[in-house]
Amino acid sequence: MKVKYIDNITFKKMFLGAAANLENNKGIVDSLNVFPVPDGDTGTNMNLTVQAAVREINNLSESTITAIANAASNGSLMGARGNSGVILSQLLRGMAKGINGAIHIDSKIIAESFQLASDTAYKAVMRPVEGTMLTVARETAEKAMATYMDYDDLVVFLENLLLQAKDTLNFMYI
């Protein structure tokens, strides 16, 4: 069955699932940390940042897509830890701008929100450096914008964006 739209309930489940996945794999992300110094805390800081967003989402009285996205943005900003947490909070801020007012999320909204997320994060960093999480966000957003019209199934679209993100990450660590 093709998935054409993501509703508020699915969006919340996706965010909470992603947060749980990060929690379970923060050690892997810690091991990828090499910039600006290999201090090995990127996954931990990102996880702490996302958990602050989760708390904000879980305290919502309404669960519209906009409310969920804004809660993720606000929670992550208030709970940001380290450079990676601050950048992640800016990615979530841009994403929230991109889906503001949406009743459901389609491939176009995903692409536009990824682009706004990347743009927002780059603008928030005084001297953006390629070969970092910013690069992964930018290249994934570019792929999303270039291909969103090619997909009538969001699952397949998101799987392809995930492959793009993994390819970018793998290329950076060759």
Tags for this entry?
174 residues, mainly alpha, globular
What is the percent of helical residues? over 70%
Q: Write the H/E string, N to C.
A: HHHHHHH
Mean pLDDT: 93
Structural class: mainly alpha
Could you provide a short overview of the structure?
Helix content is 72%, strand content 0%. It has helices at 8-32, 42-58, 65-78, 82-99, 107-124, 133-147, 154-172.
Explain what the structure shows.
72% of the residues lie in helices and 0% in strands. The mean pLDDT is 93. With 174 residues, the chain is an all-alpha fold. The chain starts with 7 loop residues before the first helix and ends with a helix. The chain contains 7 helices and no strands. The protein has helices at residues 8-32, 42-58, 65-78, 82-99, 107-124, 133-147, 154-172.
